[in-house]
Amino acid sequence: MPITAQAPFDDTTASIVLRSSDGVDFYVYKEILKCASPFFRDMFSLPQSSHTEDEVSPEGLPIIPTPEDSESLDYILRLCYPLRAPAQLTSLSLAEKVMASALKYEIDKVVDLMKEELVGLGRSSPARLYMFSCRFGLETEAQTAADILREHYREASSRTEKDFVRIATEVYSDEYGQLPAIFFYRLLRHVQSSGEELARQSFCSRSLSHSENPNGQHSYTESSIETERSLGLSSDLDNLLSAHPADIVLQSSDGFTVPTHRVVLRISSGDTILSQSEMDDCPQKDGLPLVSVSLTGEALIQLIRACYFPPACHENGHKPEDDLRLFYSAQTCNMHKIATGAKERWSSHIEREPLHSYFIACSNGWMDEACNALRHMAIEGLPASTTCVPSMCTPGTAKYYYSLLQYYNVLHQVQESTLQPIRFVHQGGETWHNPSYALSMSITPVVAYRAIKAALATYNHSSNNLVDPPRPDLEDIANPNGRGFRREPARYIRAMVHDSRVLDEGRRNAIEAVDMTTIINGAGTT
């Protein structure tokens, strides 16, 4: 049973009732809401329909349900009414709810007040303030939150992958999960930026900037199919239909019609479409059944062409985003055979674009493909802290980015315990072992300064006796005639750590030892 709000929202002579999500009725005047909010002004200017008995108050006033709870609705209305300002908020959660509603209802006065409240309350929870600000496009507030976090982590100037993951673990919460990964990435990059690199950037943009995407890589969600509306289906398919007239017509959501053959749909697992064409109330076009599908004309053309001429990965101009789009179209029409083929072709591109593919696979629940992408990233040494891709702009990918960073962290730990120490051999045959493992500055193993220093202290007395057979590109470094280890010991050690003879087997063993599926499925848990 709804209850009535406290004064002044208990005035039954008002013009409407706003009912909160927790069942509290606020009696308010339209005129006040129209003055405060363009949203309500436009809504009340529309013709009002008649209301049923359940949609009016006992006084006969129309009831408008709202998704806001009574606490936030009361605060918003008090700021709109000519009343003494309510007490300053002490709850960040309430401030967020009030701001979200003020933005939705376009109440500028409340928005301006809440910006100040949010920044004040958010200083003790800057990560949460940043998340909320990015979600609602509050650029200035997002910048403030990022600066606060950067000051908090100012000691993380080494900018190693390990520090990057540590900060991500401390900052991340489940609330980030539904946001685009790019928001989380920008925050972490900002926190670790040096003074020289620090520059004002857009934190809230849902697309990549030029500096983030210098090669202009497109998202898989962007259309790359050239329109064929004015060209017909294509000459080869037109010729086929001329020789063998169609016996069914498909209509896209934007009114484009595509003639085709039942037998082709049948062998392409188009049973859902065929069953609709056999219904008694199926409309006709030129004497043929006309079936509507929930695809655009371009997507429908691509789907029908794939039924006749399945694309191949090696075709000129073939792109993975075309396969992904075809997969979605086939899924919409329950054409599982076409969808399976499209997914398999898309998967063949994972090795070329592993990070991009990882987010696509996670978003679709393709765990095998996501794990495959992770393996390629680890083997190739792709640093997650300095790389971003367009698919990170997709909502809901932040939790997968967090999982990726956790995977790198686990991999680093396993790798350290798996890699064999660097070997130094005396001319007399005695083997010396570096007491320190190769430490990772990124997913690609690099020797940190302290490891180099330890190695030098241990092997300085035997530097003239190093006989490790050099690779061609290391001949200059390993030359014993004054240009080798004695002259550039740090460079020599770095070269050896990058030597695939030392690392490849250990790195691959470390990769195989990590349960990637568990990490991905654990997205959102901290």
From TrEMBL:
Where is the sequence biased in composition, kind Polar residues? 206-224
Q: Name one Pfam family in it.
A: BTB
BTB domain residues: 14-81
PROSITE patterns linked to this entry: BTB
User: Residue ranges of region Disordered?
Assistant: 206-225
The name of this protein is BTB domain-containing protein
